[in-house]
Amino acid sequence: MHKGIKMLMAAGLALLALGSCQKEDYKIQSNPDEFAVFPLAVPVAAEGGEYTLNITGHEDWTIKLADSNTSAEGWCALSQTSGSGATDITLTVTQSTSFVKNRQIVIEVSNGIKTLRSKVIQKTLTLGENEVLINGMVWSTVNLNNPGEFCSSPDEVGMYYQFNSDKPWPSKGEQPVPGWATDDTVFDDIKTWAPENDPCPEGWRVPTSDEFIAVWEKGQYKAQPAQTGFQVWGMILGLSEADAKAANKDNLKALGGLFIPNSGWINEAGNYDRTWLACVRHGNSLSATHGGLYLSDGGYTEQWGWGDGQKGRASSVRCVMDLKIED
Exposure string (b/e) for 247-281, b if CB count within 10 Å is 16 or more? Predict the structure, then answer.
């Protein structure tokens, strides 16, 4: 064997031996009699939860939360703020409300002479399969079906709802509709969808008119199945015209837009009506008679619902997550 190759092999074996020794030398040893805090960093999931911090030794100590990098308040809580000797501290961390920032906060433990530190680091939120972030809010990319249940695809219309009601109606059914709210007094002076009547799943709600309008003011475009790959025509909201023209069912979420399927509404006779419109409920209305609706056929667009009695018409619902995105 060549002399140079022998020397390289010997050097490699020496490095392996050194690496093995160093691995043993750098094992963290904990002395239960020594004042210390473990772990030095607490990794936390985006959904939060309860985590344990261990204090060792025999001294009296105090513990507090120090520097935080987020505007959120009270997101990390300690089970106690002082004690003596070895103790397990429970950290209670709330769900993150950030998609861009890892929450961090420093925990300081002091025995009056020495101050030790640990850091909580929480992962960011990630969007679900049927969620998109628009204007700092999380929107469902699909309509609501039965209360608490989303449709499986953006081109499904789902169930229909009268204003401020959690009672679902199918697009085709008995005529007239049994149990239909027809008395005008049901809607008089009601301008806001009451939380107890909200049919959206837990953590979601019917969006306000301002929230919905802010999305379609970013852009709205009528798209046909030949372009999108969806089964029905509909309105693409939240995108510039150029992006909307390039949108389809495979890239729409990545582009950050919504598809609102052609849906029409159900009138007081139980008839599927206004089939030339895409209709979506708002969570509030101008008056006792204004509908609180987004209506569009690609040319005509109305954000409140024209005429009298529109609150009594049932239409589709698109939910928004009740989540304030932190700075």
Answer: bebeebbebbbbbbbbbbbbbbebebebeebbbbb
Beta bridge partners of 84: 60
Q: What is the pTM of this model?
A: 0.75
Are 202 and 72 in the same domain? no
Query: Same structural domain for residues 82 and 167?
Result: no
Instruction: Render pLDDT for 79-130 as a digit per residue (tens, 0 to 9).
Output: 999 999 999 999 999 999 888 889 999 999 999 999 999 999 999 988 889 9
Q: Provide the domain limits for residue 314.
A: 131-321
Domain boundary, last residue among 91, 122, 153: 122
- Other Cβ atoms closer than 10 A to 134: 18
76 shares its domain with 187: no
Number of domains making up the chain:
2
Per the model's pLDDT, the better-predicted residue between 265 and 10 turns out to be 265
Q: pLDDT tens digits for 161-185?
A: 999 999 998 877 655 567 777 765 6
Residue 18 domain-assigned (yes or no): no
Shortest CA distance to 102 belongs to which of 157, 155, 42, 153?
42
For the stretch 1-20, pLDDT in tens is 444 433 333 334 333 333 43
Cα(110)–Cα(114) distance, rounded to whole angstroms? 6
Q: What is the DSSP string of 128-165?
A: -TTEEEETTEEEESS-B-STT-B-SSTT----BB-TT-
d(CA 310, CA 171): 17
At which of 87, 122, 157 does a domain end? 122
- State whether 316 and 175 are in the same domain: yes
Dist. CA 257–CA 248, nearest whole Å: 10
- 114 shares its domain with 229: no
